Amino acid sequence: MLVNNAAILRDRMLVNMEVEDWDAVIRVHLRGTFAPMRHACAYWRDESKAGRQRAGRVINTSSSAGLFGNIGQTCYGAAKAGIACMSNVAAMELGRYGVTVNTIYPSGTTRHTEHLIKSGRLNPAFNAVDGFDAMSPANVAPLVAWLGSTESGDITGRVFGSRGGRITVAEGWHAGPHIEKPGRWDAAELGALVPGLVRRATPNATLDGVIPAAA
């Protein structure tokens, strides 16, 4: 079992971001996930080829900022989105060796989320009951433990949210409504069509992963 959870923040609005901040976040998140995963999975592949197939488990850490977007987190969001996609590709490649790769986007009160709670963008009262701290990071541990077990062998390439007592399976990008004609579009034609196409599509989710209600 390999759990990749390394993270740093360098939050800036896009127009104020320095290249050094971008590089630092991408290096820690994306390279910091790729490097351990690459070596662990190479080991599991070699074991499989030698007739000693393992039940390998990888759990990588994304974020709602990477899946749904969050103001001021261009580099962090890009890195976390990259981790989710990298995990899904790895799941496709490694199943033959007995390796599953899944991703979590956890919620909890940590140094990374304190500013979201103070700003009101993350609701600490979510799923609250007496005596239960819904924002404790410890609430994420059971999901990670189960995904790391042999019992989860049929689950791979999925992204799970964990917050309080709720576990969610994220539904990723998919092709929505479309317009089509037998040939190339002229840009002048699209103004009458694309706004209606977008209205037919499901709105982007909020930071909580919730689809806003139609106006």
Q: What characteristics describe this protein?
A:
5 strands; 37% helix; alpha/beta; 7 helices; Rossmann fold; globular; 5-stranded mixed β-sheet; 215 residues; 12% strand
What does this structure look like?
This protein is an alpha/beta fold. It has one domain: 3-Layer(aba) Sandwich (Rossmann fold), CATH 3.40.50.720. Helices cover 37% and strands 12% of the residues. The chain has a five-stranded mixed sheet, sandwiched between helices. Strand 4 and strand 5 form a beta hairpin. Helix 1 runs parallel beside helix 3. It is globular, with a radius of gyration of 20 Å. It starts with a strand and ends in a 15-residue tail after the last helix.
Please render the helix and strand layout as text.
Elements (H helix, E strand, L loop, with lengths): L1 E3 L14 H31 L6 E6 L2 H4 L6 H21 L4 E8 L7 H6 L21 H7 L11 E5 L2 E4 L17 H4 L3 H7 L15
Helix pairs in contact: 1-3
Short description:
This protein has helices at 19-49, 64-67, 74-94, 114-119, 141-147, 187-190, 194-200; strands spanning 2-4, 56-61, 99-106, 159-163, 166-169.
Low-confidence stretches: none
Strand sequence of the main sheet, in spatial order?
1-2-3-4-5
First-last Cα distance = 45 Å
Give the oligomeric state of the chains in this entry, treating copies of one chain as homo and distinct chains as hetero: single chain
Residue fraction in strands: 5-15%
* CATH topology value: Rossmann fold
Helix content: 25-40%
